[in-house]
Amino acid sequence: MIITPASIQDLMTGFNNNYQHGLGSAKPKWSAVATLVPSSSKSNTYGWLGQFPRFREWVGDRVINDMATQGYVITNKHWESTVGVSRDDIEDDNIGIYAPMFDEMGRAVTAHPDELVFPLLKDGFSQICYDGQYFFDTDHSVNDQVDGQGAATSTSNVLVDGGYTGEPWFLLDTTRAIKPVIYQQRKKPIFTHMVKDTDENVFTSNTFMFGIDCRDNVGFSFWQLAFGAQATLNFDNVWAAYNAMRGFKADGGRPLGIRPTTLVIGPTMEQQAAEVIDKQRLASGEDNTLYKKFDVVVADYL
Hints:
There is one protein chain. This protein is of the alpha/beta class. The chain has one domain. The protein is built from 6 helices and 13 strands. It has a 5-stranded mixed β-sheet, with helices on one face. Strands 1-9-10-4 form a 4-stranded mixed β-sheet. The longest helix is centred in the middle third of the chain and has 24 residues, at 99-122.
């Protein structure tokens, strides 16, 4: 192939088609457990975490619900993926070997949020959230007064079996305006290239460069929307997690009305989940009260 502006344009069109095909090949699941929050700066501070709005009888002036100054910050990170194409391969019409790479680049863009969201959920046993405790912890503080001046009691959103060696699983309420995980996006993925003979990479390395970059990150929202279990996925443990979440209260003792809807598991736990959720009868012959009770999300990157 004689390299001309027209041939480079044809090359770009072909590689872009491969990239677009890759975009549609992945089936992301992050939106089932995370809320997309646009970002317009280096980081976002989520001062409203810790404040569940509620109604009160309107007597006298309105009472303004000031955002709690929790200071929970999610700082955006910069990500990139780059493919180098030899100029010699283009001249020799040997560009078909690169098509799968651009296809995979597109797939990676689609899968990128999953690769951030689900590992964060798994790290919730050791990463702090807005209240300074681990996201999954036995010691989240709930005050018996709305103003926080009363007595505090500990609330747990975790189940840990000391002898358990398997993968964790998670029960989530994903019905609220914000889901348990925040996916913060500063810059969407952009496909760029350096293909001019005067570009340094072409002049020095004889290589055309094609790349994607984006800026985003993930963080936790309300711990009350999630329950993490490092214990066997079975009938009794799922009911224990469900009942614990149903009993969560806000400061002042107000029921939060948490209603778990989603069970998140890793690929190795599909059979266990099917035994607990998908069978109408228990081994004892009794009706399974958990039958089809939750949407099951099998997270590849958990």
